[in-house]
Amino acid sequence: MTEAAGPMLVCDGVVKRFGSLAAVDGVSMVVNAGEIVGIGGPNGAGKTTFFDVVTGITPASGGRVHFGDTDISAFPADRICQLGMARTFQLNAAFDSLTVRENIEIAAYFGRQRRRLAGFRLGEDVRQATIEALDFVGLADKADETVARLPVLDRKLLMIAGAIATRPKMLFLDEPVGGLNVAEIDQIMAMVLKLRDQGLTIVLIEHVMRFLLALSSRVVIMHHGKVIFEGRPDKVAEDQTVVETYLGQGTQKRLKKFFDEQAATTNPAAVGTP
Ligand SMILES: Nc1ncnc2c1ncn2[C@@H]1O[C@H](COP(=O)(O)OP(=O)(O)OP(=O)(O)O)[C@@H](O)[C@H]1O
């Protein structure tokens, strides 16, 4: 890990209103360096809006956000990115008519430092960051393809590549495996763990519970803009409010089985224990 363990992100009473709707309604959260924090919750719970506020896509209606020692509550998205916080989006967010390489170069160019002069002149640092990001996500052989032609998995990989090309300290992933098959989910899972092992602090939103619970060291469940659960992944399905508002009893049973099997694998003596 490159960062000393300790708070990297501190959100204090974050609120985002759209008219009379409080999409995010007083969310306080601390993310420590080196953690993977997973955010779940029903559709419309406010997860993406929370990401949007923290990463500067939309201004907060209330509350404060600190990234390290810096109060970023009123910072625009590009400045927040340049400070070391990158993100991906739930839906494809790329320039469709440009190539994979060009998209990553743009991220590396604008996401790493403030550009005061007009013009777009790529330096060696941008080229190098682009090559590294392409290699990391496995898109090097598609670098010159137009983005519009890419399948869903490659579009997701492209967003991750663009984010890491900014060389962030912290990465926000919004539904990184939505719409992917099992093998593709496993591929992204391995990638997220590798990024964590390389020192990145990660916050992710996901509805695929296997992904969310297997990766996260801590899970936050939101509902109606509020945090209704925060704790260890294996405790999520034990929380009655979470089961009633989000998981349902079928998922609860499947998750219990999943964690029982995991416990049996890590502790073989537990197999057959009543
Ligand atoms: N720009 C906007 N204007 C008005 N309402 C909005 C806007 N963006 C989001 N909302 C509303 O805010 C609420 C929270 O939406 P948000 O997308 O953050 O939920 P979510 O938890 O990410 O949902 P999902 O899991 O479906 O992505 C929803 O009721 C949504 O309709």
Question: Which structural traits does this protein have?
Answer:
274 residues, Rossmann fold, 2 domains, 6-stranded mixed beta sheet, globular, disordered C terminus, binds adenosine-5'-triphosphate
Write a structural description.
It is globular and about 55 Å long. The chain has helices spanning 47-54, 77-83, 100-112, 124-137, 152-164, 182-197, 209-215, 240-266; strands spanning 7-18, 21-32, 36-40, 62-67, 70-71, 85-87, 170-174, 201-205, 218-223, 226-231. Helix 3 (100-112) packs across helix 4 (124-137), helix 3 packs parallel to helix 5 and helix 4 packs across helix 5 (152-164). It is built from 8 helices and 10 strands. Strand 7, helix 6 and strand 8 (201-205) form a beta-alpha-beta unit. The strands form 2 sheets. Strands 6-7-8-3-9-10 form a 6-stranded mixed β-sheet, with helices on both faces. Strands 2-1-4-5 form a 4-stranded antiparallel β-sheet, with helices on one face. The model is unreliable at 270-274 (pLDDT under 50). 38% of the residues lie in helices and 23% in strands. The protein folds into 2 domains: 1-84 and 169-233, Rossmann fold, CATH 3.40.50; 98-167, no CATH class. It starts with 6 loop residues before the first strand and ends in an 8-residue tail after the last helix. With 274 residues, the chain is α/β, with parallel strands linked by helices. Bound molecules: adenosine-5'-triphosphate. Residues 18, 21, 23, 41, 43-49, 90 line the site of adenosine-5'-triphosphate.
